[in-house]
Amino acid sequence: MNKANQLIAAELIRFEQHFKTAVKSKVPLLDRIMQYIVKRKGKQLRPMFVLLAARLGGDVNDKTYRAASLVELLHTATLVHDDVVDESYERRGFFSINALWKNKIAVLVGDYLLSKGLLLSIDNNDFEILRILSGAVKQMSEGELLQIEKSRNLNLDESVYYEIIKGKTASLLSSACGAGAASTFGSEEDVQRLQTFGEKVGMAFQIKDDLFDYGSSNIGKPTGNDIKEKKLTLPLIYTLNNCDAALKKKIIYIIKNQNTKKDKVAFVLDAVNKSGGIDYATKKMFAFRDEALGLLFHYPKSEVRDALEELVRFTTDREY
Asked: Which domains does the chain show, CATH number per domain?
């Protein structure tokens, strides 16, 4: 991501200032938690997509920074709530909010972040950007609930899987690109094109995350965490839909009843590998990436387009 980081280095610094201002609170406990969140933010991929999508259409402006802050506020809110739902006590190598301050406070912190994002847009009349991001929040909730509903019987169709990850993961990246575009482009067509571009990147991003669980020469040691959590990801879905009845029955039994036993999880990982599930998912990931690049290449070659291309390729080539 060197090219992208260098190109928008100044804008990222300004974004950090905007975000810190956006999360500030007069309540000492809340302000302390916000400082903890700010210090432990991740790679900032979504704000980078906002800023670069905006740069395709013109100069980054205050509306762009508000859009990037809104995206990060909503993303952070969902992560805080996810950790409560998943009973996860670690986030990016640090204690999660619920681990340090318990569930009740974590839920309220997530609500606070969401409300700050809404007010940031309303107070500045950024209604188009708010509309785009509100759609993403709706899709994310629907995606999570659809996954819970469909994963119970371990009989997930590939098309349903795409619907799930489109909501859970791709919708926020889609809205990040759309919100950035809406801050500089005058054309609804451009905003829609960049939203679709972000969606394709998000789909590729999630499939890459699926592949991390199975490992490969360039991914690292397989973890089997998705199997332990009974999550149906693309490599496993392909395997279940293309193996013989006996193997399918055995895999489903392991996932339902023996998903904490290392040797059983290893058996499933090996079966997915041998069935071609990893190769199939990898091809699908690159297909989504190439669709995204096709939409990006609608715009003339420039430093900004090159930086966006680099970000897109990072989503599928990353090793973490």
From this structure: 2-317 (1.10.600.10)
The overall average pLDDT reported for the chain is 89
| Cα–Cα distance for residue pair 289/305, rounded to 1 Å | 15
Q: How far apart are CA 58 and CA 45, in angstroms?
A: 20
Amino acid at residue number 295: L
291 Cβ neighbours under 8 A, 6+ residues apart:
200
Q: Is 63 helix (H, G, I), strand (E, B) or coil?
A: helix
> pLDDT tens digits for 76-102?
999 888 888 878 888 777 888 999 899
* Integer angstrom CA distances of residue 189 from 1, 16, 118, 167, 303: 28, 30, 25, 22, 22
Residue ranges in 24-96 assigned as alpha helix (H) = 28-39, 45-57, 62-85
Give 224's pLDDT tier (boundaries 50, 70, 90).
Answer: low
